[in-house]
Write a structure and sequence with these properties.
Strand content: 15-25%
Strand order of the largest sheet: 2-1-3-4-5
Number of helices: 8
Number of domains: 2
CATH class of the largest domain: Alpha Beta
Helix content: 40-55%
Oligomer: single chain
Structural class: alpha/beta
Order of helices and strands: EHEHEHEHEHEEEEHEHHEE
Largest sheet: 5 strands, parallel
């Protein structure tokens, strides 16, 4: 799992990153709010650990709000020396999934991350996916709209599965390249756009409502439009 740790205290940052690395997470450290905001907006992460009080003009709550405003459901654990009930409520209302007060022990942080991951898996990795009259059985690899079976190639199935798991949220071309093609570097947009075009012809042509939408300059969204 790809984990971004946004924490400005050097010793705490090293402590968290070392523990996560030993637990076999792929960890990226970040020590400023501005840099954290940039990486959250531009990259895909499986989990975020965010301190509330950060340098760089952007605090942890602003980062979480920005993440949710972008339509990303990435699990977020806030860690903070601000541990009152009011502080926790503010963090959760900003969009965090959990809140851990400092000081903490590594075992509890790892347990909380594991719990967030399990909830994420249950929410987004059910074998049967449905959006409107579109369904995808990820066990049998069969897609259908109403009673009509849609013949999809393996790459198209992976692409549709990813879009359906993120239904209602905008996904960027970079997110799709990483998740579907396994590319962690820019390869241009053509490969994604061409594959989306092919998938749209199979999934939307002749059916109603249209479900695959282009978000100009950003990426794509799968879901019903009002």
């Amino acid at each position: 799992m790809k984990c971004l740790v946004i924490e400005d205290e050097p010793e705490t940052l090293r402590y968290i990153c070392r523990g996560l690395t030993e637990a076999l997470y792929s960890v990226t450290p970040c020590d400023s709010g501005a840099e954290g905001l940039r990486r959250v907006a531009g990259e895909h992460w499986d989990v975020l650990i965010v301190d509330r009080l950060l340098p760089g003009g952007t605090d942890g709550l602003a980062i979480v709000r920005s993440l949710r405003d972008l339509g990303k459901a990435t699990p977020v654990l806030i860690v903070s020396a601000l541990g009152s009930t009011e502080d926790r409520v503010q963090g959760l209302r900003a969009g965090a999934d959990d809140y851990l007060s400092k000081p903490f022990v590594l075992a509890e942080l790892l347990a909380r991350i594991d719990a967030l991951s399990r909830r994420w898996q249950l929410q987004f990795h059910s074998p049967l996916l449905r959006v409107a009259n579109l369904s995808l059985d990820t066990l049998t690899l069969k897609a259908a709209r109403d009673a009509t079976i849609i013949d999809l190639q393996p790459r198209e199935l992976r692409l549709l599965s990813y879009l359906m798991r993120h239904q209602g949220h905008v996904v960027t071309r970079t997110m799709l390249l990483e998740a579907v093609w396994g590319c962690h570097f820019a390869t241009g947009n053509d490969v994604v756009d061409v594959q989306i075009s092919r998938l749209r012809r199979k999934v939307d042509r002749g059916f109603s409502p249209a479900l695959i939408h282009t978000v100009r300059g950003v990426g794509y969204l799968l879901g019903e439009r009002p």
